[in-house]
Amino acid sequence: MIICIILIPLLAGILVPVLPFRKRSHKEIFLEGAVILNSILVWYLLLHHSESTFLLAHFTGDLNISFRVDGMSMVFAGLVSGLWPFATLYAFEYMTKEEHENTFFLFYTMTYGITLGIALAANLLTMYFFYELLTLVTVPLVMHTLTREAILASRKYLYYSLGGAAFAFIGLIMVIVYGTTTDFILGGVLDPGKIGDKNNILLLIYVMAFMGFGVKAAVCPFNSWLPQAGVAPTPVTALLHAVAVVKSGAFAIIRLTYYSFGTEFLYGTWAQTTVIIVVMFTIVYGCSRALKETHIKRRLAYSTISNLSYILFGAVIMTPLGLTGALTHLVFHAVMKISSFFCAGAIMHQTDKRYVHELNGLGYKMPCVFGIFTVSSLALMGVPGLAGFISKWNLAGAAVNSRNSLAYAGIACLLLSALLTAIYMLSIVVRAFFPGKDFDDGPIQNVHDPNWKMLLPLFVFTVFIIIFGLHSQPIVDFFYDVATGVY
Amino acid sequence: MDFVCNFPFFSILLSLFSGTICSILPGRAAKVVNRIVIAAVGVMSGILLVYLLGTGESFVYWMGHFPAPWGNEIRAGVLEAGMALFFCIIMYLSMAGGAHKLFDEVEESKHNLYYILINLLLSSLLALVYTNDMFTAYVFVEINTISACGLIMIRQVGRTIEAAVRYMIMSLLGSGLLLFGLCIMYDLTGHLLMSNIKESVSVLIQTGEYQIPLIVSVALMCVGLCIKSALFPFHAWLPDAYGYSTVSSAAILSSLVSKGYIFLLIKIIYRVIGFDIFNNTRIIDVLFVFGLMGMIFGSLSAIKENDIRRMIAFSSVAQIGYIYMGFGMGTQAGMVASIFHILSHAATKSLLFIAAIGLTEVSGGSRKFIDLTGAGYRNKWAGVAFTAGSLSMVGVPLFSGFISKLLFAQAAVQVEGKMLAALIVLGISTVLNAIYFMKTVIRIYAVTGDTSYPCITFKDMKVHAVVLVLFVIVNILLGVSSQPVVNMIEQGLAMFA
Amino acid sequence: MGPNLLVNYGEAVAAILFCIGFTNLLLQTNLIKKIIGLNIMDSAIYLFLAEKGYIAGRAAPIVTNGVTSVEAYINPIPSGLVLTGIVVSVSVSALMLSLTIRLYLRYHTLNLDEIAAQLKKEGR
Amino acid sequence: MYLILLPILFPILAGVCLLVCRKDLSRKLLTVTTGTCLVITGALAITALTRVKQDFTLFYLTRTLPVYFHIDQISILFSLLTVIVFLCAGFFSFAYMKHEQKEKRYYGYYLMAFGVLNGLCFAGNLITFYLFFELLTLSSFPLVLHTGSKEAIMAGLKYLFYSLCGAYASLFGIYFLCQNCDTLTFTAGGVLQVSAASKDGSFFLFLAFMMILGFGVKAGMFPMHAWLPTAHPAAPAPASATLSAVIVKAGVLALIRVIYYIFGADFIRGTWVQTTWLALALVTVFMGSMLAYREPVLKKRLAYSTVSQLSYILFGLAVMNEEAFTGSLLHVLAHGFIKGTLFLTAGAIIYTTGKTKVDELRGIGKEMPLTMWCYTIVSLGLIGIPPTGGFVSKWYLAIGGLAGDIGIFRYLGPAILLVSALLTAGYLLPLTIRGFFPGTDYDYQTLQKREPCPLMTIPILFMTILSVLIGLFPTVIVDTLTDFVSTLI
To answer: Does a structural domain hold residue A93?
Structure first.
């Protein structure tokens, strides 16, 4: 069953260029069907999961590829499978303007399976395996347009990701050697008997592995690939570079921190201090860069950088509450950011405009898109009543609760970042809706909202932003249960 | 003694004689003979391996039935047989994959000469693998050098001759040192057979006599073999030699010849000096440091390189650095990792060379990156194979490179003091590998406006494509089911002692 | 080791010769000089072996007038080794020389650096 | 129960409907609709206010964060002010907005701001308050940048970002308070846990200071006052009126709620926080007046005046005794009406003459006598001349200051208030003087009666009267206030 849900997207992806589709709509139906079917299977699996581990293959020695559904996997797999059908729907419409559609959908759909593999991995090795595969599968998506810019971006993406994985790999080795097992067990698997006096080395390795996985999560100074990767088609930027790929990085860090090294080992050490400082810096850095950036997608990408570090900030507080906060933001940010990216994509698709200063007055021509963009901006800022407020609240609450003065400073970073978020997001909104007195709307006379395939996902995400904002208690409770190991 | 025990001797002789026979055959026939010989040796090694795995212990074969310490001996264990089998597979694939290129690059009349050299090379490799006698080893090292030199210069252009000269000079320096070290060892122990030397050495160590000459001798042998296997900083000859010779030669040279020397070094470490004694010298630290430096600087040079073949050649420098780093750790695990990496690197590097030739073919024969743009689309098989090889080099799971990285890292963790350096350099080196290999992969999948070069389909290059696929399969086999191989290596090392 | 070297002056000489040959092979730019260096190096090793095999007052290990006692002869193995070594050395020298001739025909110089410079000019 | 929601939700929804509606409504229809909505909202709000002590939990954001409404005296005070000013300015704008574009958008945001302000007044705990505080910023900044000129847009953004900056600074405090208070419901005397206050006292003082600074942004307190003089002149006059009269008061309300209902006056009193706050308030009072004095543009001058006057209120809050607090509340009302009137008159002047600088307005009193009389009367009020509202409030403030246990500020405070009053006279009265006494060289031939239409004059007049009434019958208000003020101090 578990292997099934990883394989279905892979197969579906491979079949896209192979099968002879007579009409484009047939292909769409096939893909959407496969993706939805898979998502249903995922949800079924998550809701009826058993504790048992599914062993796929022995790798070498006692290392094996195996899968298991636990709380964390439920969160991530649930998130991914929830977003993918919508993103695919959106991609159909968006890709009408791009070339090499088949290649695109091939890799796009395969990525789904790989991401689920990361989510469902039962041990560090399996996760690492899928983590590397994810890099490889997504590279063709980044270089999809095959322009010089895209090539450079994908190159950088590869260097960064593979390089990061190399350091994460060292962490993997440490866990293999000093742990009792590589399986994910909440609280960590390190064996104090084996560690002996090597505490500091292990901590150093943890920091290295953190930075290694952090490459995907765009931790400063390893973030510059993300804005560049924005040359990819928007469905990719939105789903992969705001959710699947980057969240895999965050997910991996959470796994590493909570399930492999264990918070008990790390809490209060210099390693924790280091990573908190790095994360705090990234939060502020990402926002400031977003402020300076005038390309819409790159601006959002920088925003993602900052927001990813919110997640990591929660994670490195290293308390159950911190993890709860991190998970909350993991899920909520996914919805908010994918929504804003899709808006940006819709704008590009409808108007071919990609710089902030070109957006003047579009708000009245594309009210739905910009309305939704406004909602997601407000949510990202953390306006109460929308999803972003709740996740920030949980993060800050965890920071306050941790009684760690560095975490207090982290709260300040969060708020500073919120302010900057407001500036860079709302300046877009203001431009769109308040173009100024002498604005001439002649050139954009024919611009209008996109069709339902683009709007439906947007509306659904918006509804979720609001629902999460107003009634988050059940899901936050669930996250807390995950964080405390109930699931 | 079972009949199977004759196989090592048979295979050495077979290849040696077939070399001689090739000299009077026309090119095409020589090719057939060569293939048959390689295949036959491969089969024999395979049978031997199975036999040895069955009996579980190594055997010694007296040449001409003269007993030790007078006679010349051949010794075969799991590791030797496995290595021989593997060498045959790689050599066969490399030959098959590069055959079509041979006709373009080598004069028609010299084809049979080429096969002579290959056969001689095979025999010398087999001898290096099997021999139990130090001086025999030296002689075959020289034969190996000569035939390798011939392989480099068989393509008669200025570069290759110059490369051959440089290669010769470095090799001769290396073998001179090896010979000198060997003589000192003989002086100290009075023996030439490895097992006998080892006994004497352990006696010497216990009595504490002749410590310095012993170390000098070991150091000389090590340095000699390091030079020959192009450990950083003795790698200056390598890029030209690998970069400009015909593709089969390059593949064989990089994946087998240097590995033969390394294997000899392993034998010396285990069978001549003794693993523990060797580890107590400072030599391993030196090897470790140079290994690490090789990993970094080899990759750095590769990054700067603008020629795909030379880039792959520089990458070999880095990979050899890995192997020596494994030696330098001075643990059984490190040694296992190194030996696995010998296999993994041999499989990958020859794949890369063969795939690279497929790519350059569709780019007007140019090896510059700028011309290779989009080559992956023009020759799909080579493109995919090159990508697979690159991923293996970078250490992506599923491929053999990952396993060797895993083994190295696991070995490193167990070594106090060297752990951090090894791990960090491993990480950095992976990053660097990623940079130059991925740069190339992306380059071959980028699109140029200029599509004047022809596309190649499967029909045009069946053999080439099949070889590439086989290489990839070997690679993935090593990557996925590495445990039997690792077990075998461990078993073989146990037989060494 | 120092005093030993003084006593065993034969080995000392061999070592020194080896170093001379080695340096020549490594550092000379002229190919012929390199080959000469190679030969010096090899010969030094043969000297060393011969020195090792020699036992004062005994004859070469060739049975001449029916004396079969081991005590009469020096150790034959080093001599055998030297012979083998010479064969190897000769073939290697021959190969080197032939390579040198080819290079000289092509580039009209024996200087390796100059050849390298010309190669660079050729650009391939 | 749900009645309390109506004055909040109804205008917000009405505003959203106006904004979303794509059809171009005719001007008349638009005016009528908006007018009706305003009146209905006013009526609803006042009905809701009659049910004092009513409280209502709408739902829970998270388990510890209820959205909770509660009406107390403070709510009533601020809500009344809001309703009156919004209605007056609303009707004024029906006339005024003729010469601006996109009226629909303006009315939409206007109504939303109205609803949000009601929500702010009724908010019963800190989270609900914060929610509406953010919404207020978001719904009111479009009013500022409404005219769409480059300066207006920049001013709007400046307002937005200053406000958000303040809001986030206070959110910093809220995060910590949430975990160290039993509840965030506004409770007289504070809810800070004793243990937390005693253990991390200095840290919580720091938090209090952060929140004062943060909410102080909205109230134009030094050093974060710079948005005010930019935003006011850029906005349409009725928007400036509500901004200055009510919206900036949200900052005051926030400070009252946080200091007196969350931290508790006792926690702050006598600490460095109080001292600094006093100092900042006084600096602002003086600086605002000085800047206003030097400012030639009428609306900007009024904006600086607002900066100064708001810090009167803050000074009163910072002193933390009954008299000063009463004075503050009175000044909230008085200043609300006065500044509302002033901005509306300024709007009327701009609307009729198109002139913005004080120097250009010679003889304006002859042209628009009614408007200018109102202007003069409320100016006197703002200066603090009896019997207007300003006198009473300043009297209480001064008394409170003198009675307060606040070290040097005990004398310094009232002194600065006096100096500032003089400056107030200095910057407000020149217009009156120039307006009514244009000088001998004034060309009476060109004079023409240009009194604006009743839609403009009536709101001005109404608010003028109210401001005078406060001055004449302060006891009504003071008496109702005293009881509950004593519970706070």
So the answer is: no
